[in-house]
Amino acid sequence: MFQVRTDLALEAREMYRENTKQEIPGVEVEQKEEDFATVTRVKVFNKQGSEIMGKPEGNYITVEAPGLKKADADLKDQVSQLLAKELVQLIPNNRTLKTLIVGLGNWNVTPDALGPQVVSKVLVTRHFFETYGKEEDPTMTSVSAISPGVMGTTGIETVEIIQGIVEKIKPDVVIAIDALASRKMERVHTTIQISTTGINPGSGVGNTRKELSEKTMGVPVLAIGVPTVVDAATLTNDTIKLVVEALKSQAAKGSQFFHMLREMSDEDKYSLIKEVLDPYGANVFVTTKDIDMIITNLSQIIANALNIALHPGIDLKDVNRYLH
């Protein structure tokens, strides 16, 4: 239904409301304000809601923290703790829990390196359990992690690689981390989405591969994603909106062109801009100039959240002191 490029369930719901002024049938939404972030829970619970949203049935939890673009240590810790709290509600409560963390993306392309960087920072423990023949431990659970690369490098579908690992080590849950795309520049690097529906590797740049989900893995798959890019049409659309706002107090606001722009919906403007850019190959994906530092910070936030959520005996002080 939606033409505007987004991987966020929150934004799919926003677009439907903008067009119809109604809530989506088959979808429940709950929003909670924190001092430093807004948490929105979107639950798609039937086929009708899934088809309208363009998202599988399941839960989508979005944490929006505008301060993440220039996060200090305290804010990063707060977001990590909030994410850990949300993850604990979704991860099976099992002392013998076995988790496989999958960092999707390309190490060599910074906006797509979120998954691999998270994997480099998580506390992996499966080898301890295997070496000492333990089934459980009061302070930690069995965690393994892999960054399988991209099909252009390996020649293998990512799902095929993960299926082989799942078949061998038999985890209870898979947690996949990947970069996403947003319809709004303001949400790039400031929004983290957790979903219970899995993920399609490469979705952030429109190069969707086979899905990584419970249907393909045989075990529950959680996905954690952060928008790191927008396409040029989205960026241009946002720029036009800013120009229109600026013109409201100018003489130009009485012009026919101004009124035409003001009355057009976001979807119509996006479609028009995309139609203009595509023939020239100009609808490229865009990110910010400080992407290196941002990916480093975001990967630390997500890794800290995973370490806290998966290991009962580890708190934020431990991960900050010993794991980075």
From TrEMBL:
Catalytic activity of the protein: Endopeptidase action with P4 Glu or Asp, P1 preferably Glu > Asp, P1' hydrophobic and P2' Ala
Enzyme Commission no: 3.4.24.78
Propeptide residue span(s): 1-7
Stated family: Belongs to the peptidase A25 family.
Self-association and partners: Homotetramer.
Function: Initiates the rapid degradation of small, acid-soluble proteins during spore germination.
Protein name: Germination protease
Source organism per UniProt: Anaerosolibacter carboniphilus
Source lineage: Bacteria, Bacillati, Bacillota, Clostridia, Peptostreptococcales
Gene this protein is translated from: gpr
